[in-house]
Design brief:
The chain has helices spanning 13-24, 44-47, 62-77, 101-119, 135-147, 163-171, 219-222, 231-243, 292-302, 320-328, 345-350, 357-370, 389-402, 419-423, 430-452, 541-547; strands at 53-58, 81-82, 91-96, 129-134, 153-155, 176-178, 201-205, 207-208, 227-228, 248-252, 260-261, 290-291, 307-311, 335-337, 375-382, 406-411, 459-467, 474-478, 484-488, 492-494, 501-502, 509-517, 521-530. By secondary structure, the chain is α/β, with parallel strands linked by helices. The chain has three domains: 44-178, Methylthiotransferase, N-terminal domain (Rossmann fold, 3-Layer(aba) Sandwich), CATH 3.40.50.12160; 201-262 and 272-282 and 289-451, Alpha-Beta Horseshoe (pyruvate-formate lyase- activating enzyme); 458-543, Nucleic acid-binding proteins (OB fold (Dihydrolipoamide Acetyltransferase, E2P)). The protein has a six-stranded parallel sheet, with helices on both faces. Strands 17-18-19-23-22 form a five-stranded mixed β-barrel. Keywords: 4Fe-4S, Iron, Iron-sulfur, Metal-binding, S-adenosyl-L-methionine.
Length: 548
C-alpha cells in the first residue's frame, strides 16, 4: 500500500477526509496565483508561492524533462518564480530517476552537496526547502525522509498537482510527502511551460505508466498503470507549440505506441488491439479506444513543417497501419526506436518481453520493407539474471545482424519490487557484466559506423539546433534519423528566396551534404536553406549531381 506521510497535529475528522480526498483525486489547476477551497489545516495565503524562487534540476529520461515542465507550470500558477541560480533559490526540487542503482546514487550524492548549502543558509533569508520529485520519491519514500532529514518534501510522478500544499506544509517545518499512484492522472489540463526561448523542439507526454511488467523494470512500480491523455488535449498542446514556432515534437510515453484514448464513449467499441506478428502481451488484450495510429495521423496534420517523433515504444505495438503512416507522411520521422534488450530468446523469455529473437528479427525486416531507409535504434541490457556466455554472444550477433544507427546499452542493475527481484538470481558477476557491456558497445560502434557511412555523399535534411559544443565555427542539428549532424556556419542560398544568401538559425531546415560519418554523428557542408515540404525535391540523385 502506498503512503502519505505528514505531520499535522490536532486534525479533525473533516480535515483528515479533505486530506485523503485531495491526495487521491486530480485537482483543477488555478488560473491565477489564488487557491480555491484550501484544505482546512492551511490558509489560502499559505498555499501561495509569494514569489519564492524555485530551482529545478532534472535527471533521467525524457519523461522527467516533461515532468519538470509540468511541475513548473503548476508552481508558476501558484505564484512561484523560477531561477537558474542555485544560490538564490528558496526551493530546490530534484526530478529523479530510479531505473538503475547508479541513477539513485547520483541523487544521494547531490543531496549530500545540497546539505552544506542548506546549513550555510543565512538566517536573514527564508529557510531553504529541498524536495525529491519523480520515480525515486515513489520507490524509496520512507528511506529518503528517514535517511536525509534535510529533505522537506517528496512528490511522486502522479502528485505534482499537490506541490503547492506540500511546500506550504514544508514551510511550517514539517516533512511532507505524497507518493500515491493514480489510475487516471495524465495532467491533460496542465500545459507544460517551455523554459528555453531558443528551443526548436519539445516533448509532449501522451500517456503515463506501463502495463508490460518486464521482469527487470521498475517503471510499473514507480509510475503506475498505463493511462492515456485525451487526443483533444494532446492536439491542443501541439498546436500551441506550433504557434510558438517550434519545429519538432516528440510524443512521449513509457510504452508510447500502446496509446489508447477511452475518453470518447463512441470509440469504446470491441475492436481488439492489433499486435506485431509473433508478439504477445503479459496482460489481457485491450479493446476499444482511439489508438496510436489515429493520434499519429492527427498530430502530423497540425503543421506540415513540424517534425513528429515518438519514444519509447514496445516492439509488440507496431501494426501495419502505424508503419504505413510513418512511410506516407513527410513530417513523421523515418526513425524507430525498437528496444530489443537481448538477442537470446531464452533471456527474452526470462525478461518477460513477449517475443523471441526470431519474431524480433522478422519485425525488423518488415519495418525496413515498409519504410525504406528507416533509421533504427535500440536498448540492450548486459548481464541479466542467468545470462550465459552463449546468450551474450547471441546479443552480439543481433547487433551485427541489424546494424542499428543508434543504441543505448547498460549493465543490468537489479531493482527491488520487480519480478526479477522476487523470482530470479542476480548471478552474473559485476566484472562480467562490465566486460560484456564493453564488448556490446564496441560491436555497436563498429556496426553503427558502417550503417551511418551509407549517408556519405547524400543530402540530409537537418533541423538546426544551434552552435556545435565543440566548435564556435560549426553548427549542429539532427537529421530525420535523429542523428547529430555537424557542418560549418557559412552563408547559403535560401531556396524560397532565389538570390538571397543567409546564415542558418536555430529552427531552420537546411540541406547538408554528408562527407563523413561515425557511430555518433555525421559531418558535412551546407547546401541551402529549405522547408520540410520542399526538401524532397532537392535530395534527388539528379539534383545532388549538380552540387558535386
Amino acid at each position: 500500500m502506498e503512503f502519505q506521510r505528514i505531520s499535522a497535529p490536532g486534525w479533525r475528522l473533516d480535515q483528515f477526509q479533505h486530506f485523503l480526498r485531495s491526495a487521491s483525486t486530480p485537482q483543477e489547476k488555478p488560473s491565477s496565483p489564488e487557491v480555491e477551497d484550501p484544505p482546512p489545516y492551511l490558509t489560502v495565503d499559505e498555499l501561495l508561492g509569494r514569489q519564492r524562487k524555485v530551482y529545478l534540476e532534472t535527471y533521467g529520461c525524457q519523461m522527467n524533462v516533461n515532468d519538470t515542465e509540468i511541475a513548473w507550470s503548476i508552481l508558476q500558477k501558484s505564484g512561484y518564480l523560477r531561477t537558474s541560480n542555485l544560490q538564490e533559490a528558496d526551493v530546490i526540487l530534484l526530478v529523479t530517476c530510479s531505473i538503475r542503482e547508479k541513477a539513485e546514487q547520483t541523487i544521494w550524492n547531490r543531496l549530500h552537496q545540497l546539505k552544506a548549502l542548506k546549513t550555510k543558509r543565512s538566517r536573514s533569508r527564508v529557510p531553504l526547502r529541498i524536495g525529491i520529485l519523480g520515480c525515486m520519491a515513489e520507490r524509496l519514500k520512507e528511506e529518503i525522509l528517514n535517511r536525509e532529514k534535510m529533505v522537506d518534501l517528496l512528490a511522486g510522478p502522479d502528485a505534482y498537482r499537490d506541490l503547492p500544499r506540500l511546500l506550504a506544509l514544508a514551510e511550517s517545518g514539517q516533512q511532507a510527502a505524497n507518493v500515491l499512484l493514480s489510475l487516471d492522472e495524465t495532467y491533460a489540463d496542465v500545459m507544460p511551460v517551455q523554459t528555453s526561448r531558443s528551443a526548436t523542439s519539445a516533448f509532449v507526454s501522451i500517456m503515463r505508466g506501463c502495463d508490460n511488467m518486464c521482469s527487470y523494470c521498475i517503471v510499473p512500480f514507480t509510475r503506475g498503470r498505463e493511462r492515456s491523455r485525451p487526443v483533444a488535449s494532446i492536439l491542443e498542446e501541439v498546436r500551441k507549440l506550433s504557434g510558438q514556432g517550434l519545429k519538432e515534437v516528440t510524443l512521449l510515453g513509457q510504452n508510447v505506441n500502446s496509446f489508447r484514448d477511452n475518453s470518447e464513449v463512441q470509440f469504446n467499441n470491441a475492436v481488439p488491439t492489433s499486435l506485431s506478428r509473433g508478439f504477445t502481451t503479459n496482460y489481457k488484450t485491450k479493446q476499444g479506444g482511439l489508438r496510436f495510429a489515429h493520434l499519429l495521423d492527427q498530430v502530423s496534420r497540425v503543421d506540415p513543417e513540424m517534425r513528429i517523433r515518438f519514444t519509447s515504444p514496445h516492439p509488440k505495438d507496431f501494426p501495419d497501419e502505424v508503419l504505413q503512416l510513418i512511410h506516407e507522411r513527410d513530417n513523421i520521422c523515418k526513425q524507430i526506436h525498437l528496444p530489443a534488450q537481448s538477442g537470446s530468446s531464452r533471456v527474452l523469455e526470462a525478461m518477460h518481453r513477449g517475443y523471441s529473437r526470431e519474431a524480433y528479427v522478422e519485425l525488423i525486416h518488415h519495418i525496413r520493407e515498409s519504410i525504406p531507409g528507416v533509421s533504427l535504434s535500440s536498448d540492450f541490457i548486459a548481464g541479466f539474471c542467468g545470462e550465459t556466455e552463449e546468450d551474450h554472444l547471441q546479443t552480439v550477433s543481433l547487433l551485427r545482424e541489424v546494424q542499428y544507427n543508434m543504441g543505448f546499452l547498460f549493465a543490468y542493475s537489479m531493482r527491488q519490487k520487480t519480478r526479477a527481484y522476487h523470482r530470479l538470481q542476480d548471478d552474473v558477476p559485476g566484472e562480467v557484466k562490465i566486460r560484456r557491456l564493453e564488448e556490446l558497445i564496441t560491436v555497436f560502434r563498429e556496426e553503427a559506423t558502417t550503417a551511418n557511412k551509407t549517408s556519405v555523399g547524400c543530402a540530409q535534411l537537418v533541423l538546426v539546433e544551434g552552435l556545435s559544443k565543440r566548435s564556435a565555427t560549426d553548427l549542429c542539428g539532427r537529421n530525420d534519423g535523429n542523428l547529430k549532424v555537424i557542418f560549418p556556419d557559412t552563408e547559403m542560398e535560401d531556396v524560397s528566396n532565389p538570390g538571397l544568401r543567409v546564415r542558418a538559425q536555430p529552427g531552420d531546415y537546411v540541406l547538408v551534404k554528408i562527407t563523413s560519418a561515425s557511430s555518433q554523428s555525421l559531418k558535412g557542408h551546407v547546401l541551402c536553406r529549405t522547408t520540410l515540404k520542399d526538401s524532397s525535391a532537392y535530395c534527388s540523385p539528379g539534383w545532388m549531381a549538380t552540387q558535386s
